[in-house]
């Protein structure tokens, strides 16, 4: 295509490569560029992905590929908003067509690819801008302005703690945690690189030390001449934080990118009065700035990433004026180089875990393996550990590639999306399947795909692979409501609810999956045994079950009576029980309610909550006050969504009396034959030690320890 003549007295003509959620943020940022640019076209091979951009920018032309777009429409700038492995290819295509390019982070998959893009841009006389928008957010801009007052910079610290994203709204699998970590890694890296250069602009940037923890926490030291900065990125740290700390010879500044604030202490700060007043100065700044920043975000309802509008506008102005780009090529390459070095440690070429295979696996196990679906989930991962400790060959069927730290040595991991028909080879050589996989959140469609359809595909593949034994993990929530009102607590003979539509998508998905598993089992000649766990908890790292109440900031609202019993089960006991059922399938009951042999009360669980959250304020909401609120909620649902079944929120907090006769009889067998029993005998508390449990002795008289033993069946 011949490059059209550039007339930068008019707005720049911009195209988007990619039409997903990030592209929508870019479309909004372009619209807010103050007339510097206008969006004229978008390219994405998936038509459904274009819907959000189409709504945000009316009249934008749509194309199935960037190549077709560039051959048809005159464009000045292309924003690359596609997956990282396509960035360099699409950037080179846009540059080859004579367009300036904005590339989302990560800029490229490797330093070599980044160098190729930047070299081509230089030869073409075109500009390239990376997605380093944090440099243009208010905290970074203010930190830059404060540098002259800090004196000589002596320390830079960049910290990022975040929560990996869950399943996408479509129900498809998210990126694996280690890939998500590498995806966000450029943000803390380029901030560290930028401010290290402010202290020493002439020296090269070098990564001199790196340590990656067992759960993916990255610690790194980055040197720039006389300065050394620290980088920490973690999936485990809480709360979610993103901050930059600058320390100089005459003061310090701390930038919070989550809240959007900057606190500073300028001056020598060496006198006694300085030390006494410092916390009060910081507190005053924090309260004032947090109030101001949050109000600007909430009231105008900021709809694009902070800093994105600013960096795109700076890029457009640089193009129009022919001045230097907002982020230099040297900075792009330094960031890419550090990210590559960290990626090489996170993604080693060899490791102790078995390889992750696409289906079908190339090695069969001769009919001796146990397959576990949902094998990276809260319950499934623990089941895999229990089976492995028992010396059983395990095939873990996972929806996404597990992170290196998630993989258990000796386990064969098979990547397969159960929402689609499953290749027979995924289960070939297995004798039992423990089906833990299910959707835990999301829309009705997501539960249809990842719970109901997944069960259909799994059982069909099991029958084709001659696997005849299925342990299907359902939920105690499928029981009929009337059961909870009987004088006798419901047992395994209690029928499930006749209607699941009014219970929300999760219970609906579980109930319909259970019914489907039993029906298909009869049709396909499979023996299906159903396990209905209560809410799964871990008393060591206690996260309260939904029926206990809701957390609202620093307050936990416990709903109901403290005497109400809840059917919960310790993660370790649930995993051991499922492993035992798989290994003793013929002896296993047809149906099992998997709960604590001695169900705790809500007061017991609040005790655990206070132990793990000492700063949390607990408030009890009596059921008498909940019922009127529930009726009001039902009425509003019927008015606002007359075609949808109204859900009763009071049901979500109802007590759960359960007959525990069967689990009480089974628990001693499970615990006696558990491969971890011998290790537990020497435990200081006498409790069974679960996978990853802290082996250190607990203080005598530790509140809640006896409760934990009761819940876990000890």
Within the CATH hierarchy, at the fold level, what is the topology of the largest domain?
Rossmann fold
The level of helicity is 25-40%
Largest sheet: 8 strands, parallel
| Mean of residue pLDDT values | 86
Shape: globular
Number of domains: 3
Number of helices: 20
Mind telling me the CATH class of the largest domain? Alpha Beta
In the sheet with the most strands, the strands line up as 14-17-16-15-18-19-20-25
CATH-scheme architecture of the largest domain: 3-Layer(aba) Sandwich
Fourth CATH level, the homologous superfamily of the largest domain: NAD(P)-binding Rossmann-like Domain
According to DSSP, the number of beta strands is: 26
Could you say which structural class the secondary elements and strand pairing correspond to?
Answer: alpha/beta
Q: In percent terms, what proportion of residues is strand?
A: 15-25%
* Span of the ends, CA to CA: 74 Å
Q: What are the low-pLDDT stretches, counting only 5+ consecutive residues below 50?
A: 1-5, 349-353, 360-366, 677-704
Radius of gyration: 29 Å
């Amino acid at each position: 295509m011949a490059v059209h003549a550039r007339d930068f007295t008019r707005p720049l003509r911009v195209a988007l490569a990619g039409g997903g959620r990030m592209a929508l943020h870019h479309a909004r940022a372009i619209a807010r560029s103050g007339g510097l640019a206008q969006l004229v076209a978008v390219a994405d091979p998936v038509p459904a992905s274009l819907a959000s951009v189409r709504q945000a920018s009316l009249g934008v032309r749509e194309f199935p590929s960037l190549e077709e777009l560039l051959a048809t429409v005159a464009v000045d700038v292309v924003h690359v908003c596609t997956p990282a492995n396509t960035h360099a290819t699409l950037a080179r295509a846009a540059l080859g067509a004579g367009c300036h390019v904005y590339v989302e982070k990560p800029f490229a998959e490797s330093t070599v690819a980044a160098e190729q893009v930047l070299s081509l841009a230089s030869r073409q006389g075109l500009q390239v801008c990376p997605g380093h928008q944090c440099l243009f957010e208010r905290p970074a801009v203010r930190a830059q302005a404060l540098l002259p007052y800090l004196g000589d910079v002596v320390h830079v610290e960049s910290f990022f703690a975040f929560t990996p994203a869950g399943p996408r709204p479509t129900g498809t699998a998210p990126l694996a945690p280690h890939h998500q970590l590498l995806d966000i890694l450029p943000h803390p890296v380029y901030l560290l690189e930028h401010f290290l250069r402010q202290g020493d602009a002439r020296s090269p940037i070098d990564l001199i030390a790196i340590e990656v923890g067992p759960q993916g926490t990255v610690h790194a030291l980055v040197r720039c001449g006389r300065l050394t900065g620290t980088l920490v990125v973690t999936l485990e740290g809480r709360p979610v934080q993103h901050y930059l700390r600058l320390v100089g010879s005459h003061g310090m500044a701390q930038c919070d990118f989550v809240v959007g604030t900057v606190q500073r202490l300028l001056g020598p700060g060496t006198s006694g009065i300085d030390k006494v007043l410092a916390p009060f100065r910081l507190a005053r700044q924090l309260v004032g700035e947090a109030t101001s920043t949050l109000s600007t975000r909430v009231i105008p309802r900021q709809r694009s990433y902070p800093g994105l509008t600013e960096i795109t506008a700076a890029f457009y102005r640089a193009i129009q004026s022919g001045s230097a780009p907002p982020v230099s090529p040297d900075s792009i390459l330094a960031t890419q180089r550090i990210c590559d070095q960290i990626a090489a440690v996170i993604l080693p070429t060899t490791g102790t875990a078995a390889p992750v295979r696409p289906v079908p696996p190339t090695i069969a196990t001769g009919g001796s393996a146990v397959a576990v679906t949902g094998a990276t989930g809260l319950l499934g991962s623990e089941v895999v550990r229990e089976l492995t400790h028992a010396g059983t060959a395990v095939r873990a069927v996972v929806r996404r590639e597990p992170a290196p730290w998630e993989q258990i040595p000796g386990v064969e991991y098979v990547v397969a999306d159960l929402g689609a028909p499953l290749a027979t080879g995924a289960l070939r050589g297995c004798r039992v399947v423990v089906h833990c996989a299910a959707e835990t959140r999301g829309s009705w469609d997501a539960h249809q795909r990842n719970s109901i359809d997944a069960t259909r595909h799994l059982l069909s593949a099991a029958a084709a692979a001659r696997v005849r034994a299925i342990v299907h993990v359902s939920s105690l929530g499928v029981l009929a409501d009337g059961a909870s009102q009987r004088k006798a607590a419901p047992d395994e003979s209690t029928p499930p609810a006749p209607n699941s539509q009014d219970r929300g998508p999760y219970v609906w998905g579980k109930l319909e999956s259970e019914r489907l598993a039993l029906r298909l089992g009869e049709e396909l000649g499979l023996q299906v045994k159903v396990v209905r766990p209560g809410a799964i908890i871990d008393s060591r790292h206690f996260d309260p079950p939904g029926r206990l109440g809701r957390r609202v900031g620093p307050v936990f609202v416990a709903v109901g009576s403290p005497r109400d019993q809840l059917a919960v089960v310790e993660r370790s006991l649930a995993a051991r029980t499922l492993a035992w059922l798989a290994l003793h399938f013929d002896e296993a009951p047809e149906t099992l309610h998997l709960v604590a042999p001695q169900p705790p009360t809500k007061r017991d669980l609040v005790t655990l909550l206070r132990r793990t959250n000492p700063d949390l304020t607990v408030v009890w909401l009596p059921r008498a006050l909940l019922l009127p609120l529930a009726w009001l909620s039902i009425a509003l649902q019927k008015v606002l969504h007359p075609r949808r079944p109204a859900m009763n929120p009071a049901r979500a907090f109802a007590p759960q009396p359960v007959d525990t006769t069967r689990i009480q009889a089974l628990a001693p067998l499970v615990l006696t034959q558990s491969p971890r029993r011998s290790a537990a005998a020497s435990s200081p508390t006498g409790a069974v030690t679960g996978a990853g449990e802290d082996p250190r002795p607990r203080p005598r008289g530790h509140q809640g320890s006896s409760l934990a033993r009761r819940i876990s069946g000890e």
